[in-house]
Design goal:
Order of helices and strands: EEHEEEEEHHEHEHEEEH
Distance between the termini: 28 Å
Oligomer: single chain
Number of strands: 12
CATH topology: Rossmann fold
CATH architecture: 3-Layer(aba) Sandwich
Strand order of the largest sheet: 6-3-1-7-8-12-11
Number of helices: 6
Mean pLDDT: 94
Largest sheet: 7 strands, mixed
Number of domains: 1
CATH superfamily: Class I glutamine amidotransferase (GATase) domain
CATH class: Alpha Beta
Length: 194
């Protein structure tokens, strides 16, 4: 069964940080669903001006952690700042973390991780201007293109997108491998019972 990634975004998302990972995930056979507090379309921000729009697939209230294998949080200064004021967006981040499912956040996206209180004691990265916020929330902040700490995947900027997407794909493959192993163990247990 195809893996599904939930992308949380609203107006002002960094254009490259949503569109490029979305395309790369879909090219790898992974389904993506964009959820937003808004319906219709949301507008990206590209090099200091409004950019391309992306279609919203679902409302925040209509999505659940149970329906997805991972969560992706694109950056842009406006996007995560608006989303962290949406209780349902913060709740979804908390739900994915509690479920141990991969959460990939790039640039300013980790602001949502701070709001959901999931970075304390974790190693993360992000855009330079939010690193103090991450540290104040208890994170160990490093300056690397991609950082994986348990289920958290973080990156700094658009130039990190290739490593960011690959880390998310790898995490999804690891989840699939674990599921396959559990299935094999269940099959063996059933055979032993017979």
């Amino acid at each position: 069964m195809a893996k599904r990634v939930l992308i949380l975004a609203t107006d002002g998302f960094e254009q490259s940080e949503l569109i490029e990972p979305k395309k790369a995930l879909e090219a790898a056979g992974i389904e993506t669903v964009v959820a937003s507090p808004k319906s219709g379309k949301i507008k990206g921000w590209n090099h200091g001006e409004w950019g391309k729009s992306v279609t919203v697939d679902a409302a925040l209230d209509d999505v659940s952690v149970d329906d997805f294998d991972a969560l992706m949080l694109p950056g842009g200064q406006m996007n995560p700042d608006a989303l962290r004021m949406e209780p349902r967006a913060v709740e979804l981040v908390e739900d994915f973390d509690q479920a141990g499912k991969p959460i990939a956040a790039i640039c300013h996206g980790p602001w949502l991780l701070v709001e959901a209180d999931v970075v304390d004691g974790r190693t993360v990265t992000g855009w330079p201007s939010i690193r103090t916020d991450l540290e104040n929330a208890g994170a160990d902040v490093v300056d690397e293109e991609v950082v994986v700490d348990e289920n958290l995947i973080t990156s700094r900027k658009p130039e990190d997108i290739p490593a960011f997407v690959q880390a998310l794909i790898d995490a999804l493959e690891d989840v699939e491998d674990e599921e396959d192993e559990e299935e094999e163990i269940d099959d063996e247990d059933r055979e032993d019972e017979l």
